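Notes to self after the Tuesday call (sharing in case useful).
The group wants a holo model before anyone commits to mutagenesis around the pocket. I volunteered. Ligand is 2-O-methyl-1,6-di-O-phosphono-D-mannitol. Logging inputs and output together so the record is complete.
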Amino acid sequence: MDEMESIAKALVAPGKGILAADESGGTIEKRFKIINVPSTETNRRDYREMLFTTPGAAEYISGVILYDETIRQKAKDGTPLPEVLKRQGIIPGIKVDKGAMPLAGFPGEKITEGLDGLRARFEEYYKLGARFAKWRAVITIGKDLPTLGCLEANAHALARYAALSQEAKIVPIVEPEVLMDGDHTIERCEEVTELTLRIVFQQLTMQRIVLERMLLKPNMVVPGKDSSKQASVREVATATIRCLRRTVPSAVPGIVFLSGGQSDVLATQHLNVMNQMGPHPWQLSFSYGRALQDAPLHSWLGNPANVTAGQEAFFHRAKANGFARNGKYTELLEAENTELQGTSSGNIREASASQD
Ligand code: 5MM
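Result:
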């Protein structure tokens, strides 16, 4: 089998999913602020080393998305962090976008930047061990938003990125995130997500992306976080699957959801019910950032004495999502390690859905 195809398949292997640990400088600073830890290079390294060296993590985690700084960092014993992951049996990945900036002429909308010089960066990232990559576009729902201009610009950039990624023999994860911010209904989220995915796949086709060699990282279809009408787990699962079946070709090997500001437990429940509704044309897994990290972050608190507690909290969430990815998650499983979860779900619920 082609190398990229086998990497894409390995990333969505049964019972496994991806840890998104690619917070850029500003985002990790925000996360550390919640636990009162200064965002120094050493603290960022220590925190990520704690996650990556979690005993048994590879049972449920297939790959980790790194940030440019992290892929160049070394563990305390001098081992490069990508090597630490490889020794665990985890595939290193890299975020290659340079963030979302205001889109000229489109007030309230953003365009993700980072295409200039990307071919050379991909070459270097391959040498540093990255075998998959990620680029995130953000789509805002609001009055008269999103515009077609914004959707097309972002879809085009995603497709240009994916083409360069495949040229470098790196599997692209294509992440068009329709944000949860706002008071819109679940129906409006479904309408916007469907349109977004249609335009993204048109552009991927135009740029000759080999669908078997990529993964899609979408939002789930949920009401805005300020909506007066919240949805049940089954409603979210039903709307999300309907939307994906209408838009994602079956040649795409896997869909790895982002959590987008949902509580960690809810993100697991949604994934579980969607998998129970299968079989689906693609594997359905996770690529969570906050929904995997909120619990370990609050157990760690920047204190070296808490590393084991942080790893246990991370392992627990990875395991829960590994089971959900097979539709086998249960309340009993969630209750294991209850004392370690502390207030994590509460904290994440209070956090803003927006990354920006
Ligand atoms: C980890 O956060 C990623 C974005 O970081 P920056 O905003 O600093 O670039 C983000 O793309 C993340 O990978 C996805 O949104 C998934 O994370 P969540 O928290 O939504 O599951």
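Two things stood out.
The first strand starts at residue 17 and ends at 20.
The domain at 3-355 is CATH 3.20.20.70 (TIM Barrel).
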